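Q&A log
Question type: sequence-to-structure
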Amino acid sequence: MNKVALSTILLAFGLTSAFAAEISGQNRNGVILSMTESQVPGQQGRAIRQISEQFQTVKNSNPLFIGTSVQVAQQEVNGDRVIHHGFGETRNNQGDTYIWTANGTGQLQNGLPVEAGGRWEIVSGTGKLQNVKGSGQYNCKFGPNTINGCDWSGNIEGAPSM
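Response status: OK
Response body:
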């Protein structure tokens, strides 16, 4: 049985496809909800930050991944460079959720982010996304003359096709 026939049968019964699919999206409208920063004693320009933020996935190749995200992240700031480790939850417009991690690096200018990039991984989900897994990369630009958000892409499996 070929992949197309099997996918058609699985979707007809409301099941998810086990085949990997490419996915891409855009996150915009980010808002920092809270931020705490502590300077590392004796190390000029080095700090640890704890950040919580909210943003919207406004465009996606699979509409089940459009929604509102909340992320909690730890950042190590060293001068104008940042190392980022975060995790978050995205709730789509139908109420399904997926849990993800993001790890990467970034660049600051005058203490504000101007770019970032790294890897993301979806580790679990609920509802129609309960079997979803996947990973990929993200690239972000911030500032008045840029996209002011993140574009991302990767591969997922276990999600219904739309």
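Response note: Residues 3-12 form the longest helix (10 residues).
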